[in-house]
């Protein structure tokens, strides 16, 4: 089973952004040195959640030059916010720079505030996303002499006459990893032989204390579709190798008590940041076109912790993850910088990287040289 790092920190003020960029760079460098397999980043705008995620492709390109062994992924790109031409161009550039070590998580977005900043209504996000993905496939397939591709999708307009440059490195293009929750998303991953994100909850409830029940359900559906799609065995194996279960907050300490105490400190700070952002979210939801239909529980509730957190002493973390390994999950994505990235928060994140590398990874994988 692989272990990857999800860079998901927050900056609480403009004058904190620069230090966050440097701290996350150092955290990623440490992750590579300790044997982690990939760096994943989100796609967010305006609110201080991963300010460098306003263009994660740019930050990933910078890190790729420093960390040539690492894979890179996105969890996830909010497809409606990206013009399909720029979406395809950025993916192709990073696909070339990483020699194909790239996985692009895709989704329709979760935040009305971000949507209105790009001229998209939240209620239209799903339709704009599906149309953008269809346009992206046309752009990847277009040859120089093929008819022009017309783009007229929400705020995205254009007419592409020649081709996308540069060409992609990966055959077809880099895999687009969906969340395997909706049948259409699951089938897209399965039929293309792509990995998927396996969720630990079933809407409308975003949380709960029985995550494995949901993981097993969604993984089973995805794997059955993947195996029935008629791919060669190596395609199936590669997809499962990177099929990912995500923890928004992973914290490992020498004892369970220490881990829980430090986790609550992390989550209190995280929840404070969420509540500070609520005023701007409310402004974005001031009309019916931008009303959210679901709500995430408070991060200090057992429902949130049970779904989104992995914590404890190394032995406890190993015991928790063994059923996921037995199920067939290929990649555990660890949010190791959740919340505002203070000096103390970075220390705790680095502590988690070290303990996972020293005491958790050996139970699940053979260490590969850097």
Task: Give an overview of the whole structure.
- The strands form four sheets. A seven-stranded parallel beta sheet has the order 8-5-4-3-1-12-9. Strands 2-13 form a two-stranded parallel ribbon. Strands 6-7 form a two-stranded antiparallel sheet.
- α2 links the parallel β3 (38-41) and β4 (71-78).
- It has a domain at 74-175.
- Helices cover 46% and strands 15% of the residues.
- The chain has helices at 17-33, 56-66, 84-97, 112-117, 125-141, 183-192, 211-228, 233-241, 256-284, 302-308, 314-327, 343-360, and strands at 2-6, 9-10, 38-41, 71-78, 102-107, 149-153, 156-160, 176-177, 244-247, 249-252, 309-312, 331-335, 339-340.
- The chain is an alpha/beta fold and 370 residues long.
- The model has no long low-confidence stretch (mean pLDDT 95).
